[in-house]
Specification:
The complex is a heterodimer of chains A (306) and B (288). With 306 residues, chain A is mainly alpha-helical. In chain A, 74% of the residues lie in helices and 1% in strands. Chain A has a two-stranded antiparallel sheet with strand order 1-2. In chain A, strand 1 and strand 2 form a beta hairpin. With 288 residues, chain B is mainly alpha-helical. The chains are: A mainly alpha (306), B mainly alpha (288). Chains A and B meet through helix 5, helix 10 and helix 12 of A and helix 4, helix 9 and helix 11 of B.
Chain lengths: 306, 288
């Protein structure tokens, strides 16, 4: 095995042992956010598209999952599927429109669409307004294994996370992923080589939206509730922060960032809006002094010293 | 019936005036610095709050606040440009957006800690209290003042940028800063001043808004999303375009509130989607 594979194996073991050392719900939250940030990184880190509206996919999927399980009595698997499918559809809709502009306009457009989703969820009759959807039972996996306990749920979330991470890994290293990186680095050249750039970008956007939706469905199941805070633009901002802090365009950077940001939110929860000040401060620091992120810096350090 | 409609249209016109003022500032900053100033909403909030604090603690009245607040907040903006934004000019413009996003979070958080999220009201200045009854509608004086002043400010900014020598430097800086510098113009200073001016415009809008809306730490973040949509719809290339789009969208919002109120929060984004379908570069923009 190569050094990289050893690293991955170590991380898998850490993930398996995690619920015995930290509070499982916290660990599950980190995993969901890590999947969310990794999906976001596929877009920003590898395709150079900054979406400022990814919370829409995370949040909407959570609402759909809980709603179909609560009202139509869908089993958990179909609930997750429905949430993810909703995020994919939203991603396709927004993507088709947002792809028409690039750079900062792309960011502003996605932000606008996400705000639209926020208002729709706030106002629709079935979403519970400010309260959100509360107290939906997790149900049984395959109709056999009850996920009501935190430990079985943790391993289910962990399995989904690994699957999502693997999909992202495969996407990045596929020919498709290489074309994405080529577009990121030199779009005119990619066009002149005959690639239909818009289609590649759209597909990347849809994959990223779908995986964000998967993360959102899982997150809603973990907490058994879907709330407005997951559709809010603050959430779209924190996913950028996780990715940036951990390391843009590195495979595990976003997960590291998710761990840090989730810890920050968790331990400072009682300090109210100081979380926002601190988040903003870390943002400024990252952009000014620390653009490669933690994993990026470590990588550069290792490269320099060997 | 007609009273309700004209009432909503007036509110729409007022909102539109603020959209126009704010998107003008955004367009000026973006034109020269290439930075999307996410903190624009927070700086608008800062303007309203500084005016409110000046009234509360120092007994500075509205008229002085209207002059002093934009100066103070504009100075803060120049400091921000000197210390932080300046380092990002050679990088991807996305970093400017992210930096100013961080600044917005910090500003909002600090004010939320200090003043909570409930609103503070700012009195309408004595001279502009009351209003006239036009028979079919009641016209408060202060609102007329807001619409007139913002149109005057927008128009004079447009005039300065498009028709004067100073404006020609600005436009030249947008096209080719290196060449402008070679002609002996101090471009870095110009960038600082431009950012300061854009921020001052936001603060000015904030002071104007203080007597109409509640002064709250979060008053800017809702507005800035709409202003971004306005910018996408109008295209940032043209100053006149952003003014017209701002006012127009305010009116559309007002009409929506009258005909189908629940849609009024999302109508701007729906218009944005339609414009992207039909004219991806924006109504007044040029496709690069």
């Amino acid at each position: 095995m190569s050094r990289l594979q050893w690293g991955y194996a170590l991380l898998v073991v850490v993930g398996l042992a995690a619920p015995f050392f930290v509070y499982p719900v916290f660990a599950m939250n980190v995993l969901c956010l890590a999947l969310f940030a990794s999906a976001f990184n596929l877009l920003l880190g590898y395709s150079g598209l900054l979406s400022f509206g990814h919370a829409a996919f995370l949040g909407a999927a959570g609402y759909i999952t809980l709603q179909v399980m609560r009202v139509w009595g869908f089993p958990i698997e179909l609930g997750i599927l429905a949430g993810t499918a909703a995020a994919l559809t939203l991603g396709l809709l927004f993507g088709v429109l947002a792809i028409r502009r690039s750079g900062i306009y792309f960011a502003m457009i996605t932000l606008g669409f996400a705000q639209m989703v926020y208002f729709l969820i706030l106002q629709m009759p079935w979403t519970g307004g400010e309260d959100g959807l509360q107290g939906v039972a997790r149900g049984k996996l395959l109709g056999i294994i009850s996920l009501q306990g935190n430990l079985p749920m943790y391993y289910f979330v962990y399995a989904v996370f690994l699957a999502g991470f693997w999909i992202i890994h495969r996407t990045i290293h596929s020919p498709f992923g290489h074309v994405l990186r080529a577009i990121h680095e030199n779009e005119p050249r990619a066009i002149s080589l005959g690639y239909d750039v818009d289609r590649y970008k759209l597909l990347a956007f849809v994959i990223s939206a779908g995986l964000s939706g998967l993360a959102g469905s899982m997150k809603a199941l973990v907490f058994q509730s879907a709330t407005l805070s997951d559709v809010h633009w603050h959430r779209s901002g924190t996913v950028v922060l996780m990715t940036l802090l951990g390391g843009l365009g590195t495979p595990i950077g976003p997960s590291v960032g998710a761990l840090l940001v989730a810890s920050l939110e968790n331990y400072l929860a009682s300090y109210g809006s100081w979380v926002s000040v601190l988040t903003g401060g870390v943002f400024i620091l990252c952009v000014l002094a620390f653009r490669r992120g933690i994993v990026g810096e470590i990588r550069a350090l290792v490269k320099r010293s060997f | 019936m007609i009273q309700a409609l004209t009432g909503q249209l007036l509110i729409g016109l007022i909102n539109g005036s603020f959209y126009a003022l704010l998107s003008l500032g955004l367009a000026i900053i973006f034109g020269l610095l290439g930075v999307v100033n996410f903190a624009h909403g927070a700086q608008y909030m800062l303007g309203a709050f500084v005016a409110w604090m000046a009234m509360q603690y120092l007994h500075i009245d509205y008229w002085w606040a209207l002059i002093l607040t934009p100066l103070a907040v504009g100075l803060f903006g120049m400091l921000l440009e000197r210390l932080m934004l300046r380092r990002l000019y050679r990088l991807d413009p996305l970093y400017g957006l992210l930096l100013t996003f961080g600044v917005a979070l910090v500003l909002e958080g600090v004010f939320q800690n200090a003043f909570g999220i409930s609103g503070n009201s700012y009195p309408v200045p004595e001279l502009l209290q009351g209003g006239t009854n036009l028979g079919f509608m009641y016209l408060p004086k202060y609102r007329v003042w807001v619409v007139i002043v913002s149109i005057v400010v927008c128009f004079s900014s447009w005039f300065v940028i498009e028709k004067t020598r100073l404006g020609s430097y600005l436009r030249a800086g947008t096209e080719n800063p290196a060449l402008l510098q070679a002609f002996g113009v101090n471009v870095p200073l110009m960038l600082t001043l431009t950012y300061g001016f854009g921020v001052a415009l936001a603060a000015f809008a904030g002071v104007m808004a203080a007597p109409i809306y509640q002064v709250t730490p979060l008053m800017g973040s809702g507005v800035i999303m709409v202003v971004f949509a306005v910018v996408v719809i109008g295209g940032m290339g043209s100053i006149a375009g952003s003014i017209v789009t701002g006012l127009g969208l305010g009116l559309i919002e007002g009409l929506t509130k009258f005909f189908y109120a629940p849609a009024s929060d999302v109508i701007v984004f729906v218009v944005m989607a339609l414009v992207l379908l039909v004219r991806p570069a924006g109504l007044f923009g040029r496709q690069h």
